[in-house]
Amino acid sequence: MSELTWKHHALIQSLLSRGPLMADNFHKIFEFVTGRDPGAHAKLFNDYLLKINKELSFVQFELRGCRNQYDGKVYYGVVNNVSDEQSKIGTRYTVPQIAFYKGIIEGIVQDSAGQGSISNIDALYVRLENQVPTVQSQLQSQSQASTSAGVPSAFKNFSLSQKEKTLEDFVKDRWLCSTPDGRVGLGVRSFLDLRSWFHNNEVPLCHACNEAAVKAELCPNEGCNVRMHKYCLLEKFSKTKVNKVCPGCSSQWPYTVTKMEALMYQNEINGSETSQPKERSQRKSRFVAADNAPSGRPKLRRKLITNDAADGGCSSQGSTSTVASLRRSTRSTAHLK
Predict the structure, then answer these.
(1) Which terminus of the chain faces fewer neighbouring Cβ atoms within 10 Å, N or C?
(2) Nearest to 193 by CA among 14, 20, 336
(3) Which residues does 97 contact at the CB level (< 8 Å), separation at least 6?
């Protein structure tokens, strides 16, 4: 069995050190490392990923791509293939924090309107007691005491201020995100890691791509349960001769594809060929190979890319203004609870 080369290691390390990356940025890293444009050498790009995943499978990890359902952009990341959400963040977060996260994502995916988000207040007042059966064994392993009512004391003592801080950390670490209207949604790391969890918990699927439709458009016919991601609708309805009807019940689907959306979709299909010369010239000015790099391995004198801290239409930066706004809304409504 052939070993991975330093080029494979560089691709893995870029994702491990920076976290999930937008496809455009990951493609730039791939082109810099291999000297090949993944758009023009798709087979080579896929061969690299297959070889990496063959090796990562021995430790139950995978280099995976997914779409952020809030902005439709593709991201790549290295994920844990163990199919329970506790294992994803258990190495850093405490058991009450994991239960808090689980309660939030359950609230988000159970939204029948397909908004893919819940309010900040609903997130902060998630009842950790509902998560007791799934984490009782973990608490016992950590020697946590339980109350007479069967609710762990760690859950009882998990204060509102601790929830605020934990929610801020989830957003910063991109497990969750803050939507433009101030609600809490899933972060890109959740979309990457929780694919099996979505399936096991029977989260409704997108009729077009068969992936979990957390943030989706619903068929206008209330008797129909078809839902599709906005980017899947765009792909389906951007074709000029396609009738805009529901694929399930054939009801008219009032969705208008704007000229800008059609242009962006067409550019995505064409690989944004018109912008490639400009990108190449920018890369030449940003990347420099050191003269004394060992084994022909280029060294970066400047940063290859910046971290994708913001998930498009769903911010994961955990900015001071966002946190301050969250706390103000919490304080103003706390007396109602």
Answers:
(1) N
(2) 20
(3) 89, 166
DSSP string for 155-176: HHT--HHHHHHHHHHHHHTTSE
Query: For residue 3, what is the DSSP state?
Result: P
Half-sphere exposure in the Cβ direction for 161 (13 Å, CA): 0
Predicted pLDDT at 139: 47
pLDDT at 300: 44
Q: Please answer whether residues 118 and 111 qualify as being in contact, where contact means their C-beta atoms are separated by less than 8 angstroms.
A: yes
Distance CA(276)–CA(269), nearest Å, equals 14
By CB atoms closer than 10 A (0-12, 13-18, 19+), residue 75 is buried
Count Cα neighbours of 324 within 13 Å in the Cβ-side half-sphere: 3
What pLDDT sits at residue 289?
A: 39
155: phi then psi, degrees, rounded to nearest 5: -75, -40
pLDDT at position 275 is 38
Mean pLDDT, 10 residues at a time, the chain of 337 residues: 86 94 96 95 95 93 94 92 61 86 93 90 89 56 49 86 95 92 93 90 92 93 92 81 85 76 59 42 41 48 46 53 51 45
- Write the single-letter amino acid at 220: P
H-state helical runs in 90-178: 95-109, 120-124, 132-141, 153-156, 160-172
State both tokens at 253: 């689907």
Residue 213's closest CA among 313, 103, 114? 114
Alpha-carbon torsion 259, 265, 271, 275, what sign? positive
CA separation, residue 91 to residues 11, 71, 321 (Å): 24, 29, 29
